[in-house]
Amino acid sequence: MYNRIEVNPEVCHGKPVIRGTRIMVRNILGALAGGDSIKDILQNYPELTLADIKTAIAYAIELVDDTQLSIKVSA
Predict the structure, then answer these.
(1) How far apart are CA 27 and CA 33, in angstroms?
(2) Using CA atoms, how far apart are residues 67 and 43, in angstroms rounded to an integer?
(3) Chain centroid offset of residue 59 CA
(4) Which string of DSSP letters, residue by residue, matches the chain?
């Protein structure tokens, strides 16, 4: 399912990257969180495809679904 993402200890300290690049999934997610559009990201990283960005988002969703975070609820 995530054949566009690879984790290799020799590349970016083992952080998930888009296969064949040194573009970390976190960079894509950070750009989206910072307000960049998908079009902006594709312009800034011409080696990426729309499928790469969608895969990065899907990967993050699965990680969040599989992770229990302790978040303090405010009153």
Answers:
(1) 10
(2) 32
(3) 7
(4) --TTEE--TTSGGG--EETTS--BHHHHHHHHHTT--HHHHHHH-TT--HHHHHHHHHHHHHHHHT-----PPP-
d(CA 55, CA 5): 8
The CA dihedral of 32, 37, 43, 44, to the nearest 10 degrees, is -30
Does residue 15 carry a pLDDT above 70? yes
Residue 55 has pLDDT above 70, yes or no: yes
Q: Set out the domains of the chain in order of their start, with CATH numbers.
A: 5-65 (1.10.10.10)
Predicted local confidence at residue 5, as pLDDT: 96
